[in-house]
């Protein structure tokens, strides 16, 4: 029985040393650091999309890609939408943390509370967490929600919705 106690004590000590070393290593000179805000992009542009990624009868996901906007790392993708091309008075937004090492940013925004079989018009833009716009807005785009129980994704034409699985 004493041999078992010695083995348990030795194992416990070894595990404690390993864990304390890994914790100490996390606070060393190679610890992650928060970078200062990046310089604002001189020519911010949407270089892919916006496009419908997927949709069902009551929601949609809109995605687009832009060059990295700069400024603070905390950003929001914003979709302004409505049932008229001139009256897009509803807003959906999604938080994103910019990666300063990437030359572009992919935004994805989920729009909820939509009506089935309804055509929606939308534009997209992005903003910093303080509400300051990045200064770029897309052209007006459109999509139509499916009927109840149907769903479609971007790799399928909107006119051929597929049933939910």
Overall morphology: flat
Strand percentage lies at 35-45%
Helix/sheet category: alpha+beta
- The top-level CATH class of the domain at 46-154 is Mainly Beta
CATH superfamily of the domain at 46-154: Immunoglobulins
Helical content stands at: 10-25%
Strand tally? 9
CATH topology of the domain at 46-154: Immunoglobulin-like
Number of alpha- plus pi-helical segments: 1
Summarize this, please?
Helix content is 15%, strand content 40%. With 165 residues, the chain is α+β, with helices and mostly antiparallel strands.
Question: How would you characterize the overall build of this protein?
Answer:
The protein is of the alpha+beta class. It has one helix and nine strands; from the N terminus they run αβββββββββ. β3 (74-82) and β4 (90-97) form a beta hairpin. The protein is flat. The model is unreliable at 21-25 and 156-165 (pLDDT under 50).
Main attributes of the structure:
165 residues; alpha+beta; Immunoglobulin-like; 5-stranded antiparallel beta sheet; 4-stranded antiparallel beta sheet; 1 helix; 15% helix; disordered C terminus
Topology:
Elements: H1 2-26, E1 46-56, E2 59-67, E3 74-82, E4 90-97, E5 104-112, E6 119-128, E7 141-144, E8 150-153, E9 162-163
């Amino acid at each position: 029985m004493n041999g078992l106690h010695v083995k348990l004590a030795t194992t416990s000590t070894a595990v404690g040393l390993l864990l304390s070393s890994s914790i100490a290593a996390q606070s060393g000179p190679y610890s992650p650091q928060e970078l200062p805000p990046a310089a604002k992009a001189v020519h911010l542009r949407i270089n892919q999309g916006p496009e419908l990624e997927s949709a069902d009868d009551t929601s949609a996901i809109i995605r687009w890609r832009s060059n990295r906007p700069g400024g603070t790392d905390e950003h929001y993708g914003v979709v302004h939408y409505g049932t008229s091309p001139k009256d897009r008075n509803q807003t959906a937004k999604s938080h994103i943390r910019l990666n300063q090492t990437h030359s572009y940013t992919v935004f994805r925004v989920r729009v909820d509370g939509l009506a089935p079989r309804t055509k929606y018009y939308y534009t997209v833009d992005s903003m910093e967490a303080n509400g300051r716009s990045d200064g770029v807005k897309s052209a007006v785009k459109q999509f139509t929600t499916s009927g109840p129980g149907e769903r479609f994704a971007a790799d399928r034409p909107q006119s051929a919705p597929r049933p939910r699985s």
